Every structure is written in structure tokens, then in C-alpha cells.
Amino acid sequence: MPAADEQQMIQHVKDGNREAFRILVERHMKQAYNIAFGFVNNHDDAQDIAQESFVRVYQSIGEFRGDSGFGTWLYRIVANLSLNRLRKKKSSSFREITLADDPPAPGLPPAGDLHQQDVRMHVERALHELPTLQRAVVILRHLNGLSTRQVSVILRCSEGTVKTHLHRGLKKMRSKLSFIKEDVLC
Hints:
Blueprint: H1 3-14, H2 18-40, H3 43-60, H4 70-92, H5 114-128, H6 132-143, H7 148-155, H8 159-176, H9 178-185
């Protein structure tokens, strides 16, 4: 949706038009879910976070100034709620991440054979072993295709910080997944 059309849609929502809000939700729900899933690696939690994000958007749409794009504002809300959910889960319990029960992380190739499923499982595990900020940057930048600038706005840090965390996160993932290259070559 062109920026001007989206701004008009947002103004309609501010004026109380529920249909305009429904359209915004439909256009952004999948991306909001994908970002949340990338953080929490759980289908139900990701759905809850995406829905809660839109509730917060609806409640505070009047405060949206348009300094950044609507998507950037929404994804910041999704990222913050996701990080809060992770903090809450860490403090309440140390549960085992069960990758087999959840759908694959968005942006990763679908599983076709047993080897691909195994590779995907290792990639997801390596991703979720990264420190929170590195994981957030890798998810937003690579799995969701956002620009470095958009990621910096969402996470409220400089572009240099995003690049640093991206570099460190990818380096750690490469190190953890180096055995896959060796396994494929043998």
C-alpha cells in the first residue's frame, strides 16, 4: 500500500472507521505474526502477541504521529511485546523449546526430506540460542527482510548497533552450524 494511502487509512481509523482498521490488520497481521514467532518460537504465543499488538495499536492510534511508517510502529510494538513475553517466561520457568511441535520459523526453507528437517531444526535452535538483541536483529533483518534503518527504529538503537548485533549473531550462528557444511560435503 502506498504511504499516502496508508496515511489516509490511518486517518480513517483515527476518525473511528472500524472497516479501515480491519483493512490495516489484514495487511499487517502476517508480518506481525512472523516477527512474533521469530522471537518466541511458539505458534500460540505468536498469535497472542500479534493480536495484542493490534489491540494496542487500536487503543493508541490517536498518538501515532507518522514520524515513522505504520509498519515500523506496529513492528516495534510486536517486538516489545515479544521481548516482554520472553522475559516473563524466563523468570517464571525454564521450559524446553520443542521445535518439532511448532511450525518452522518464517523465512526458513520448508522441510521436504528428513535431512532438510534436521538442518532447519539446527538453524532454529542456533537462532534461539542467540542473546535476545542479536536474535531480534537477525529475525527482523534477515527472516523478515526489514532494512537496517527499519530495524534500528523498531529496536530504538543506532544503525551501527544493529549492524554490530547482526554481525555477531550471524557469526555465532555460523559457528554453531559449521558442522552442517561439513556434513553436506561428506
